[in-house]
Amino acid sequence: MKYVLDQEKIRPDLVRTIERLSGEDVRQCYQCGKCSAGCPIAADMDLPPNQVMRMLQLGLTDEALDSRTIWLCASCETCTTRCPREVDLAAVMDALRHEALRQGRKSPIRQIPFFNRTFLRLIKKYGRVFEMELIGRFNVGTLHFFKDVTKAPRLFFRGRLKLWPSFKGRKTARPAFQAVKNAQRHEPAEPPAADESAGNPTP
Ligand code: SF4
Ligand code: SF4
């Protein structure tokens, strides 16, 4: 796909925010494409992982933040492991999701943030996921009431689906949620000031 570089769309300040959140320098990427070649989800992504990096190098944060890619990424870290420049691309994807949510952008695949929120809510409630409730809430929330119900009996008889939640781990989960809450409280409200030299295309 062809992209036209429009000065008004270039946001070096947001690139710096992504770098701060991920701890990575996007200029380290030299576009070898090894991350995309190994990514198990790349075929379904609108931007392969290396192109997400390229968009950030060009300062085109809207393209990265509005992509399906950041929501499809499964955080498997294959890209991170394969990168010859030791760029933690999985952390960059995480930072992009974080920033997209902070800005209130709508995910192009609405079920994914809904699933993530529901999953975390259950971890907070029980200390671990209760699959029966997760499936129920997800199916009702997405109006796909009978999605995957035929799989339930098989999972149940194999002991993979419990009828009642377990509260084991609730004590250990609570401090983790509290730590996230504290970290969010100390997050800067505004991204750092724009650096004019940042976000320019790499040579
Ligand atoms: S593997 Fe690393 S250097 Fe290569 S394109 Fe991906 S992020 Fe860039
Ligand atoms: S972490 Fe995300 S982008 Fe990287 S290989 Fe896994 S799914 Fe693909």
TrEMBL record:
Keywords for the protein's UniProt record, in alphabetical order: 4Fe-4S, Iron, Iron-sulfur, Metal-binding, Oxidoreductase
Segments forming domain 4Fe-4S ferredoxin-type: 19-50
GO MF terms, alphabetically ordered: 4 iron, 4 sulfur cluster binding; metal ion binding; oxidoreductase activity
Region Disordered, annotated ranges: 175-203
GO cellular component, one term: plasma membrane
Gene3D superfamilies referenced in this protein's UniProt entry, alphabetically: Alpha-helical ferredoxin
Keyword Iron appears in the UniProt entry: yes
Lipid biosynthesis found in the keyword field: no
Name under which the protein is recorded: 4Fe-4S ferredoxin-type domain-containing protein
